[in-house]
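Final paragraph of the annual report: two paired records, presented back to back.
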Amino acid sequence: MRIALIPAFEPDLKLVNTARELCETGFEVVIVNDGSGCRYHEVFEEAAAYGAVLSYRKNRGKGAVLKDGLRYIRQRYQPPYTVVTVDADGQHKTADAVRCCQKAEKQPEALILGSRRDDGGQVRVPLRSRFGNTLTRQAFRIRAGVSVYDTQTGLRAFSDRLVPPLLNIPGDRYEYEMNMLLVFADQKRPIVEIPVSKIYINGNETSHFDPVKDSIRIYRCILKVPDVVKFGLSSLIGFLTDYGAYAALVTMVGWMGAPAVFAVTISNILARALSATVNFTINRKYVFRSREKTAVSAFQYAILAAAILAGNTILLNILVEGAGISRYLAKLVTELTFFTLSWIVQKWIIFRDKPACSVKPEGYLTVCGKGEVE
């Protein structure tokens, strides 16, 4: 079975033509009306003659409605099936959608992209599309280490096996499609391109892509520094603060003639308190971007810091007094030991990412079958 998923926002009659051609070719058609409003009711009513329509009152973004469409498909249809996403503006030929599905059926573990290749100037590509495609292509190659010619194509086919992982990919607007490529590249999943017709109707004027806002969202995904790297940098800053304060304090207390155990313990506690404050602030604001109340996350962080401090201090004294290791080398060993534990607890407990919206959004009308309103 082949299913065409069409996200649509304020479409014209090209949506109806696209749905009809796909239906006549044997596709099950699922259309998602992304809050187009009452003015476009007749268009969707005509399109409902050829498939199911999910209609939302408010605009939610291409990524959000694609995932909602996939949830609907997953609930309504039994595997095996192949899904192809098709734009509503008539820029994808039905024959190309068929070819993408055929490729996906042969390679069920691969994401198939309908790639609009350079045709030697036979089709005039709008300047914003040509410039954006080239820049994004190079940025993606540098970030992902994988070459994809058409990173912005909306014509994508995949088997039912890939629907669950696609539902877990973040992004509610155009950045969802870029995140899809990044996730597949990072997970070493195959991405296969096949050449398709290049169609730009009236200079692509019907596109709802915002060249400023949506470009920022996309490049934020491409250029995003992984959280673990930012955590490492934050930890490095905290470590330098901690180690600098520790070295200064242990030297000062040593000059006062204090016993080694006391010097190590008091210096480690004071240095840890200072570095923990610095580390918490950086992690909360810049690494995990937590929306949790400061008091709540600060309390949880304090418990973690106290636990790590206790373990850190015990291990530090064992290494210095028991193993006879240098005070300075022992500090390095203990910091490396507790780094991973700290990352896991902060990532998944203290600053865990809570979903901004419900997994099952409310407020849509389902038009089923070939025009039957449910």
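The closing record of the year follows.
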Amino acid sequence: MLDIDAINQMDCDAFVAYLGPVFENSPWVAQRSWQKRPFADIEALHGAMFGQILSRDTASKVGFLGAHPDLAGKEAKQGRMTAESTVEQGTAGLDSLAGHEMALIDDLNRRYRARHGFPFIVCVRHYTKVGIFAEFKHRIGRETDAELAEALRQIANISRYRLGALVKEAQEVITPAA
């Protein structure tokens, strides 16, 4: 784990190699964020990185979302998910679904993608397996514009957790009063 000073001193290639996985299959986010150095803290770094996504037009945002795997989908079944997604989905029990749960999530993934044009995205750290299914069922019928915004909010949470695993938070130094 590196501190923000070490991050700020990285050349572009090292920066992308280290922070590229923060956004699923999208190292371009780190590459374009490198130019924004120096970062005052992890929040500034995350803001610069997430800002790269928010500054895109709608079609580009949808394309970015498309780089994310379906929950417990074919990428997971074929062992082709990123290490980060594999761990995250595993913590929610999505790597050990019962047969009926797998059939349900496959159906929900298919219906959600058909309706919205991108995969269902949720920060699994915020939900139990039961909660994920409930959220899936709730969000599938929403308007696509609302889901695009929600997917980006979920990615903001996911990426902040991922960044927190790579970059040390600054410790506030408290000096005793005289």
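The radius of gyration is 18 Å. This concludes the annual technical report; the extension proposal builds directly on these records.
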